[in-house]
Amino acid sequence: MTRRFFVEPGEIVAGRVLLGGQEARHLRTVLRLQPGAEVELMDGRGGRYLARIALFSKQGVELEIVGGGLVPLEKERAPLTLAQALLKGQKMDLVVQKATEMGVAAIQPLATARTVADPRDRQRRLERWRRIGVEACKQCGRAVPPEIREVVLWEKFLFVAGQDRGYANRLLFWEEERQTRLADLLPLTPGPTLMVIGPEGGFEAQEVEAARAAGCRTVSLGSRILRAETATLAAVAIGQFLLDNFTM
Ligand code: SAH
Prior knowledge:
Layout: E1 4-6, E2 16-19, H1 21-30, E3 38-42, E4 47-57, E5 60-70, E6 80-85, H2 91-101, E7 106-111, H3 122-140, E8 147-148, E9 152-153, H4 154-163, E10 169-173, E11 193-197, H5 205-213, E12 217-219, H6 228-242
Parallel strand pairs: 1-3, 6-7, 6-11, 7-8, 7-9, 10-11, 10-12
Antiparallel strand pairs: 2-5, 3-4, 4-5
Bound molecules: S-adenosyl-L-homocysteine.
S-adenosyl-L-homocysteine binds at residues 173-175, 197-198, 200-203, 220-222, 224-226, 228, 231.
């Protein structure tokens, strides 16, 4: 039973923190821990601390930080960047949460020809996705949330991605690809990898051509047409496995 609890960075004051609510109840009634016991605290932003139970109070459980601190940012050998065309409604929330759990390094939301998203609520949605990323980190024990970037237009994205020599692999998952399966591109070159997934309406031919001109390889996930979020989850799961990012 992991003794991992989640706090907001601001709740740690002068080396002490008060756990309240269901976290305190879980610690006392489920784990039945007593003063003196040690637990791990995470703030979802890279802070990971060892803390000792100091005392129980009406407000909850008071803990004293005894060690830990900012987790050294282990430089990932093959960080995966997911460039995801904006999806409608809650689907982007799901993509952000699952990509975070699977260790995706960065998420680049894209506005493509067929994305349907109200430009007015971009800032609100971006803040929401970043919150979802932090919450997913706390749940899965990931120290640092993925970088969730501002939405960019397809043309601008391709210009930047095309210039970025840092990628070892640039894969565009295309529902109409008939030549190359992902399996045909294995083994992937170990290194920073970009995966691009389209919107519910798919990619337009000229978008695919432009991506190819920018150095992306178009790949198929088979003859069945997957829903965008299905394709994203499949591509990320396979990609993270191939890049050996399911570390222990
Ligand atoms: N509207 C299109 C489907 C778009 S699916 C149609 O009905 O034909 C949404 C996105 O998921 C696609 O743009 C692509 O990025 C990905 N995708 C879905 N199925 C795929 C497949 N079999 N191979 C590769 N990518 C796929």
